C-alpha cells in the first residue's frame, strides 16, 4: 500500500475513535460521583469504621464480620420483611394500580377535566417529602383530620400511627408518588390507536375485554418500565417514614433505609451501616434484573 492510500485510512481510523473524547467528561463524573463512592462503600463494609469508641481511633479490616453479623441479626430480617411489605403495598399495588386507574378514567375526557384532576393528583407529587410526611402525620395523628371525621360520625378515635403504622406510611407514599405513574400511563394510553378499540367494539367486545386483551398488552412495556422505576424509588424512601413514625412503634415500620441510618448514624457503626446499604443495593439490582428480563420476554 502506498503512502497516499495509507493517509486517508489512518485519518478515517482516527475519526472512528473521536467519540471517546466527547464522553470523557461524563466518564469522569461517573467515576468521581458514582463508581468511587460505591467502591469506597464496598471497602468500608469490610472494616470496623465507627464514629465513636476504640474503632474510631484505628480503622481495621475485619473481613466478613459485618456480613455475618447482619445475617445473624433478627432485626435485619424484620427490616427486609417491612421493606417488602412497604414496597408491594405502596409501589407494586398502590401507585401502579391507582396511577393506571386514574389515567384510564381520564382517557377521552375533555381538557378541563384532565387539567383539574391532573392538578389535584400532581399536588402530592410536587410536595417535598418532608412536607408530605407532616401533612399525613397531621391527618393520621391522634387529634388529626381522620379522627375528627370519624368522631363526627360517632366512631371512637383510633391511634392510627400506633395501631396500623405500616398502613399509614403505605398510604402516605401512595399519595405522594401516584402522580408519576399516572403521567406515565396517561402518555402510554394516549398512544393506543383508537381504531383498534373501535374495531373491537364493532366486533362486540366489552370494555373489560378491550382493557384486558388490547389496552394492557399494548402498553405492557410501559407497565414494566414504570414498575421498575417506582420500585427503585420506593426502596430508597427514608424521610417520609422517618418523619411520620421514626421506624416505630418498635420496629413496625423499620425498613432497610431506616435500619441502615440507625446503625450508621445513631449507633455510630458506619462499617455495619455500609454493609446494610450494600444489601439494599443488591435488592435493587435483583429487582431491576427481574424487570429487565420481563421486558425482554
Automatic annotation (TrEMBL):
SUPFAM superfamilies: MalF N-terminal region-like (SSF160964), MetI-like (SSF161098). It is found in: Cell membrane. GO terms for biological process: transmembrane transport. The keyword Transmembrane applies. Residues 81-291 form the ABC transmembrane type-1 domain. Belongs to the binding-protein-dependent transport system permease family. This is Amino acid ABC transporter permease. It comes from Paenibacillus yonginensis.
Amino acid at each position: 500500500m502506498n503512502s497516499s492510500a495509507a493517509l486517508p485510512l489512518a485519518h478515517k481510523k482516527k475519526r472512528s475513535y473521536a467519540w471517546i473524547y466527547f464522553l470523557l467528561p461524563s466518564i469522569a463524573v461517573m467515576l468521581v460521583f458514582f463508581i468511587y463512592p460505591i467502591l469506597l462503600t464496598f471497602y468500608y463494609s469490610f472494616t470496623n469504621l465507627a464514629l465513636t469508641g476504640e474503632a474510631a481511633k484505628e480503622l481495621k479490616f475485619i473481613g466478613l464480620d459485618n456480613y455475618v453479623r447482619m445475617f445473624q441479626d433478627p432485626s435485619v430480617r424484620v427490616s427486609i420483611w417491612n421493606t417488602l411489605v412497604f414496597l408491594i403495598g405502596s409501589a407494586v399495588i398502590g401507585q401502579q394500580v391507582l396511577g393506571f386507574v386514574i389515567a384510564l378514567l381520564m382517557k377521552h375526557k375533555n381538557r378541563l377535566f384532565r387539567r383539574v384532576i391532573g392538578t389535584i393528583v400532581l399536588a402530592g407529587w410536587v410536595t417535598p417529602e418532608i412536607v408530605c410526611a407532616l401533612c399525613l402525620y397531621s391527618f393520621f395523628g391522634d387529634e388529626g383530620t381522620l379522627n375528627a371525621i370519624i368522631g363526627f360520625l360517632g366512631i371512637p378515635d383510633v391511634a392510627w400511627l400506633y395501631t396500623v403504622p405500616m398502613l399509614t406510611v403505605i398510604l402516605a407514599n401512595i399519595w405522594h408518588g401516584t402522580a408519576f405513574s399516572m403521567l406515565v400511563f396517561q402518555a402510554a394510553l394516549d398512544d393506543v390507536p383508537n381504531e383498534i378499540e373501535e374495531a373491537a367494539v364493532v366486533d362486540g367486545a366489552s370494555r373489560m375485554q378491550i382493557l384486558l386483551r388490547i389496552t394492557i398488552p399494548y402498553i405492557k412495556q410501559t407497565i414494566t418500565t414504570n414498575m421498575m422505576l417506582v420500585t427503585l424509588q420506593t426502596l430508597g424512601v427514608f424521610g417520609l417514614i422517618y418523619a411520620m413514625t421514626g421506624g416505630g412503634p418498635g420496629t413496625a415500620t423499620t425498613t432497610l433505609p431506616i435500619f441502615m441510618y440507625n446503625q450508621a448514624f445513631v449507633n455510630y457503626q458506619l462499617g455495619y451501616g455500609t454493609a446494610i446499604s450494600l444489601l439494599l443495593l443488591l435488592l435493587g439490582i435483583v429487582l431491576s434484573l427481574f424487570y429487565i428480563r420481563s421486558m425482554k420476554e
